[in-house]
Amino acid sequence: MDKCVPYALSMAIDPRPRSDGTTGYRVRVMVNRQSRTKTFDKYRDAVRWEAETRVELERNRHFAEDALRAERTIGDLVDRYVDRQLHRDLVRSGEKGQRARRRHLEWWLEELGRDLQLNHLRRAHLMEAAETMEIGGGPSGKPLKPATINRIVAALAAVLRYGRRLEWTESRVADELHLEEDNARIRYLDEEELPRFLDVVGSEGPLLESLGLLGLQTGARRGELLARKSGDVDRERRLLSIPRSKGRVARSLPLGERTMELIAEHTSIVTKDRWLHPSPTDPAKPTTLPYKRWHALLERAKLEDFRFHDLRHTFASYLMMDGASPGEVAEALGHRSLAMVKRYAHLSDAHMHRVVSEMQSRVLAR
């Protein structure tokens, strides 16, 4: 009589007693919804057939997957990414960041064509797209700088990473394209421009005055300021708390008397959960920077080529010129390393050179 098959050997081989006292072995192999069944008199024949059939069905599965993969297009993958993954990737960026990602992906579909098969996507496609963006053919219709192009390419890279997890593609072409960025621009208010800015900062209303003074006194990013709530202000110690976010460190920054007065106007009778600068149309949401009034303010101050972010550069520049160490400047700006602070180092040297030169001309020139 044939031996009894151990349970752990394979659940696919099922011993079945027959009426004549012998045992048959029914084999069922199933791979990816493909199944085959056969019965054998001998166990070793059943094992051999199971192994051979499994290899054959696995080969058929790979052939089917390869055929399906060859048919999938960039449009198919983008649609699935937008429906199922985009909000997970940009949960910290909120609705604004998600809208920007959708806009960038819509541009890619128009540029590459929805029907471009994933296995036909080449680095040359992205190089041509980058050149198009440089001359004004990007999502905004204006010539774009390398940093902006890199963010748009990053949107496609996120889609392809998702595709690799799905095993729809093995493409890494977007990871290989990164334009060199020029982050050397430092525009700050010099000693002549700063008084002009302070003279007119309140000319466009308390909201812009509050944001302008906060940016100048704290060096906080625009998004960090707009995301603050009443509870982030310690009125007794006159501090603004900016919590830790991805890639940044938490910090508390001192506020001036006029800034505290403006904050009190906004938040005198509200709870800690209310936005520090609520939207005038929907107080449940934070406001946005009023760009028309911002540009009107710049015209009054006779400032050219000046962005709101340059208040952050002004803050860091004057810290450096007043003798703060690179580590102290990095801490005030919320940077984890000194790499981003090196751009301000020459300001300390230049300031010291000017101070010494003035002293020499005043004291030694006799």
Quick take:
With 366 residues, this protein is mainly alpha-helical. Helix content is 50%, strand content 8%.
Structural class: mainly alpha
The tally of helices reads 14
User: Which sequence of strands runs across the widest sheet?
Assistant: 1-2-3
Overall strand count: 6
| Amino-to-carboxy terminus distance | 122 Å
Strand content: 5-15%
Quick tags:
single chain, 366 residues, mainly alpha, three-stranded antiparallel β-sheet, 14 helices, 6 strands, 50% helix, elongated, disordered N terminus
Give an overview of the whole structure.
By secondary structure, the chain is mostly helical. The chain has helices spanning 43-71, 74-84, 86-89, 94-112, 123-134, 146-165, 193-200, 206-218, 222-226, 257-267, 291-301, 310-321, 326-333, 345-364; strands at residues 13-17, 23-31, 34-40, 233-234, 239-242, 251-254. A hairpin with an 8-residue loop joins strand 5 and strand 6. Helix 8 (206-218) packs across helix 12 (310-321). The chain is elongated and about 115 Å long.
